[in-house]
Specification:
288 residues; mainly alpha; 62% helix; globular
């Protein structure tokens, strides 16, 4: 019974998110507190589930993991989201207004259809950006720190080089006129799926869920320590359906994760990773 309940946690979480935002009055949404409350509440819930029914003892959190994960959570909210809004979303909004682009009919679509459309649109961009990162030397240098993770936990999807975190956050959603509640529901849902896909929880959702949405089994295989080539599958952060459509889906699971020598990087090393080879060459020249 316990395992069955944990297997149903991911779809049940989505159902709760969709219900809350689907029924929330406009004045509550516009007050500005419901979205961060639901996003943070979902993360805290998923993280707590790791302590109740963990998947692998080797992935158990310690003080260093906690501090790093919390740092990236704060960094993502205060820096990455601010930069994305300032440099991309606000600029797209200005372009949209200047060109007279308007899609008010989208807000009249059924709520759940809007949520799914937003999720698909955002994740489509994430899928191709992520796949490109595994097929381009410079982009891989920004993404590699995320693959140096030696364990998976709910907040691990937030960890990486700042360049990668910024690039993977980009989308064209600002060009469309979706209902605000649907937007919030979609982004909290994408976050919830990603939390579960990185979480150390013994939860294997029903087959129908894993056909459309990314699970820890599929994403742990993407993080496998076998080789770099073995990570070139299951690129979808939240909607594994894209991997099935574009031929990059691979079934399986990996308990041992991490790249190269599986060296755990410090925050400084994660930030400097793309230029570490240059820094080492400079140090060698100075030493000689």
């Amino acid at each position: 019974m316990k395992q069955t309940l944990f297997n149903l946690l991911p779809p049940a979480t989505l159902a709760v998110i969709w219900t809350v935002f689907g029924l929330a009055p406009r004045e509550i949404t516009e007050a500005g507190w419901l979205f961060p409350l639901m996003a943070l509440g979902t993360l805290v819930f998923v993280q707590l589930m790791e302590f109740i029914h963990e998947r692998h003892a080797d992935w158990r959190m310690n003080r260093q993991e906690w501090l790093t994960d919390i740092f990236y959570l704060v960094f993502g909210v205060l820096v990455i989201e601010t930069m994305t809004d300032l440099l991309v979303d606000s600029q797209l909004t200005r372009v949209k207004e200047a060109l007279g682009i308007a899609t008010p009919w989208l807000a009249d679509l059924p709520f759940l259809l809007q949520v799914l459309l937003i999720m698909l649109l955002f994740e489509f961009g994430q899928y191709w950006m992520h796949r490109w990162m595994h097929n381009n030397a410079f982009l891989w240098s920004t993404h590699a720190p995320h693959h140096h993770l030696t364990q998976l936990n709910a907040m691990k999807g937030l960890i990486g080089n700042p360049i990668e975190l910024f690039l993977i956050s980009l989308s064209v959603i600002a060009l469309f006129d979706f209902d605000e509640n649907a937007l919030f529901a979609a982004f909290v849902s994408l976050g919830a799926i990603a939390f579960y896909a990185h979480a150390n929880i013994r939860s294997d959702p029903p087959a129908w869920f894993g056909f459309f949405f990314t699970t820890i089994r599929q994403h742990s295989l993407h993080h496998t320590a076998l080789s770099f080539e073995d990570t070139r599958c299951n690129y979808s952060n939240s909607i594994i359906l894209f991997d099935r459509i574009f031929g990059t889906f691979k079934d399986g699971e990996s308990e041992v994760v991490g790249q190269d020598d599986r060296k755990r990087l410090t925050i400084k090393e994660q930030f400097l990773f793309p230029i570490l080879p240059w820094l080492r060459k400079r140090e060698d020249r100075a030493a000689n």
